[in-house]
User: Which sequence fits this backbone?
């Protein structure tokens, strides 16, 4: 009998979304349990809210005795997944140093360091050693791959296949499949390199084709020209 | 680690404040000199008459002059002693006490009891503003000072409480008994309540559509209303930015400031202290978020502004504080430019000041060694906000000082970032002299292997491309490149020379000269 009855009730007792709750009560300790649940919900539903998570870390900062390190770890994994945004640092700024000394956080900090410095090989090696931390969060691998592709796209017009393979940690047949998908959906082009295998042409952007950068300085506003009309006439 | 004990005191703070054991100095809280009597009577009258100009004069000048003459190292007369000169007016007494405590904090060192009393006074004052009907019109300077001092006293309290080692039993008893005083929730909720109740966000929004006037009247109300709640609400947004920076929550701090468009003049620029506090914290938060270009741009603007206007503030009680923040912002600018060499964004005057102050250090910061690291440490420690730990200590455990914890954490994380970026200035030096170079050759020059070079180049790209408030990628790079297979192509963004503007100006100038020549009649 439960389901049908409970569902609408829940709707009524939670008239606000957690996002609204944070917006209305940014400094209210009573919403702490809601925010903790919301972290778990973000993990299971593969969604993300930096504002809600910072709000929770803030409440932990105000009342350290209420802190759950398990929740903090989840927030940090989610923040890693938000790269290239600086969310991981934003969270660390709020977490007391003695907490950061714990083993699981040390690992996450090392992982973040590898990502921040483009060392994807080391990152994937380290992540493989810490499966229990990162595998608890669905979508982790894909999110990091997306970040790797982001950095590669900033850097390369044409990237050698092995460099790509290392960055996204996909090889062989799976990589072929992945490339096929990217070619079909994301505008990637495969080229033959000079004798050394495949080159992947990444989509053009103003970052890997700096000449595409809009140059606003070139034009002269009309009203400036208008000023000399009387003289010209 | 650099010694971190810079004072962040409000104006006029004596270098070594004498203890507040005022009896020894012959201080009689009930004695009201004639000049003070006249001061409160006139100030009270001007407030009742809503004479903002006179209020401002008395507040900025007379109060300072009297403090200098009569209360150099004692508090002002107690509020009870002056109350009957002002009809025991409740609100006036709250305002008087606010000034009384501010003077005490600036010139003496407050006792714990006084800190708690000052908190109570702010509670009563803000309650009246939030719930009562206040019909005063007060100068922006005063309203800014209230918010500024409120946040300062909170910060000061956190620092004081964190020095647990030499607390007396009596102090600990008081701290436990009045655990709500300067509680971080209380502080944030007051500021938040002022923002909300004042409807300032909506007012600024409506102003954009021309439905409301706020900025154009400097926040004053010329229709007989009061400016107090509105302007307090406005300044509270800056207060929230500052508190969040003190807590290390830069993202939220910037979010609180968002309703104010800092690319334009606004009420926040109408008071020099507010202008500087806003930009200092805005710039610092952006620095911590790696949005260096944004930080450089705003530091440059305000430093130029201070350079041009500081002579007008020489007599102001804020002068010392202005100079100090000026110096700190030069240090922050030196940090930003060392991590992100966008000198083109810096105006000539500011740049020459910067070279004079930090030129030599900035050269050393480009290197990758311990000394460079030590300078980043030194400049950060000198220029950062006075970070606080907001939670109360545990009184049972052995009493230890934790007043440096928050600062140490922010410093450590900042230096961590510097370390991640320290190879970048090396790679930049090489890229500067090539238009194309192969990965192998550059790896050779840099004495690293090719895979390592690839990571360095990706780090360069990642660190020079920040994510802005809307999640958009923005380039902070002065020098950009791309890799095609294993060839690096360098693109230096040269500032487009603006010939168009130049010619336009010259055409207008020539026309003027020709007109002048035409007018000359040769006899």
Assistant:
């Amino acid at each position: 009998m439960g389901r049908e009855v409970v569902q609408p009730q829940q709707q009524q007792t939670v008239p606000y979304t957690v996002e609204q709750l944070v917006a209305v009560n940014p400094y209210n300790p009573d919403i702490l349990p809601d925010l903790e649940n919301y972290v778990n919900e973000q993990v299971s539903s593969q969604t993300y809210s930096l504002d809600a998570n910072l709000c929770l870390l803030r409440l932990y900062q105000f009342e350290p005795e209420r802190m759950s390190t398990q929740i903090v770890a989840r927030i940090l994994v989610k923040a890693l997944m938000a790269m290239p945004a600086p969310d991981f640092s934003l969270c660390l700024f709020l977490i007391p140093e003695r907490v950061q000394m714990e083993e699981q956080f040390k690992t996450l900090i090392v992982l973040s360091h590898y990502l921040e410095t483009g060392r994807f090989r080391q990152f994937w090696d380290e992540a493989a050693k810490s499966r229990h931390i990162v595998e608890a969060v669905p979508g982790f691998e894909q999110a990091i791959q997306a970040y790797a592709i982001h950095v590669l796209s900033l850097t390369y017009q044409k990237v050698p296949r092995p460099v790509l393979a290392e960055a996204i940690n996909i090889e062989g047949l799976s990589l072929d499949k992945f490339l096929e998908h990217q070619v079909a959906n994301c505008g990637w082009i495969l080229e033959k390199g000079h004798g050394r295998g495949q080159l992947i042409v990444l989509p053009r952007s103003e970052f890997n084709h700096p000449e595409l950068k809009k140059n606003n300085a070139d034009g002269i506003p009309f009203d400036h020209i208008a000023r000399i009309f009387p003289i010209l006439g | 680690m650099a010694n971190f004990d810079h004072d962040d005191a409000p104006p006029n703070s004596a270098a070594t404040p004498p203890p507040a054991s005022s009896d020894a100095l012959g201080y009689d809280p009930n004695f009201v000199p004639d000049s003070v009597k006249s001061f409160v009577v006139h100030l009270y009258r001007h407030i009742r008459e809503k004479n903002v100009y006179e209020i401002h004069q008395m507040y900025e000048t007379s109060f300072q002059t009297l403090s200098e003459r009569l209360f150099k190292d004692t508090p002002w007369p107690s509020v009870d002693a002056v109350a009957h000169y002002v009809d025991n007016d409740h609100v006036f007494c709250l305002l008087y006490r606010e000034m009384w405590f501010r003077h005490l904090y600036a010139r003496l060192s407050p006792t714990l009891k006084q800190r708690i009393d000052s908190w109570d006074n702010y509670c009563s004052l803000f309650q009246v503003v939030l719930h009562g009907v206040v019909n005063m019109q007060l100068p922006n300077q005063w309203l800014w000072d209230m918010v500024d001092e409120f946040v300062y006293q909170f910060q000061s309290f956190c620092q004081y409480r964190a020095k647990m080692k030499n607390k007396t039993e009596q102090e600990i008893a008081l701290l436990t008994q009045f655990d709500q005083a300067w509680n971080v929730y209380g502080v944030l909720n007051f500021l938040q309540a002022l923002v909300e109740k004042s409807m300032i966000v909506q007012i600024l929004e409506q102003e954009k559509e021309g439905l409301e006037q706020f900025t154009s009247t400097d926040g004053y109300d010329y229709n007989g209303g009061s400016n107090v709640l509105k302007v307090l609400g406005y300044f509270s947004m800056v207060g929230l930015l500052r508190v969040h920076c003190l807590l290390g929550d830069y993202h939220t701090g910037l979010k609180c400031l968002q309703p104010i468009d800092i690319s334009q003049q606004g009420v926040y620029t109408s008071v020099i202290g507010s202008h500087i506090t806003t930009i200092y914290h805005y710039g610092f938060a952006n620095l911590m978020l790696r949005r260096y270009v944004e930080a450089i741009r705003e530091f440059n603007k305000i430093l130029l502004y201070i350079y041009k206007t500081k002579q007008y503030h020489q007599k102001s009680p804020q002068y010392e504080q202005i100079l100090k923040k000026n110096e700190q912002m030069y240090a922050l600018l030196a940090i930003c430019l060392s991590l992100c060499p966008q000198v083109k964004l810096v105006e000539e005057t500011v740049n020459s000041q910067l070279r004079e102050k930090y030129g030599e250090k900035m050269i050393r910061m480009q290197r990758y060694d311990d000394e460079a690291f030590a300078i980043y440490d030194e400049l950060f420690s000198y220029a950062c906000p006075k970070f606080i730990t907001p939670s109360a200590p545990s009184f049972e455990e052995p009493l230890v000082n934790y007043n440096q914890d928050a600062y140490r954490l922010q410093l450590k994380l900042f230096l961590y970032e510097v370390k991640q970026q320290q190879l970048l200035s090396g790679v930049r030096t090489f890229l500067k002299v090539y238009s194309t170079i192969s990965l192998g050759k550059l790896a050779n020059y840099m004495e690293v292997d090719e895979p390592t070079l690839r990571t360095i180049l990706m780090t360069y790209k990642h660190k020079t491309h920040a994510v802005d408030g809307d999640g958009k990628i923005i380039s902070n790079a002065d020098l950009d490149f791309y890799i095609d297979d294993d060839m690096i192509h360098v693109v230096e963004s040269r500032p487009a020379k603006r010939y168009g503007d130049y010619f336009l100006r010259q055409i207008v100038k020539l026309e003027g000269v020709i007109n002048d020549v035409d007018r000359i009649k040769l006899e």
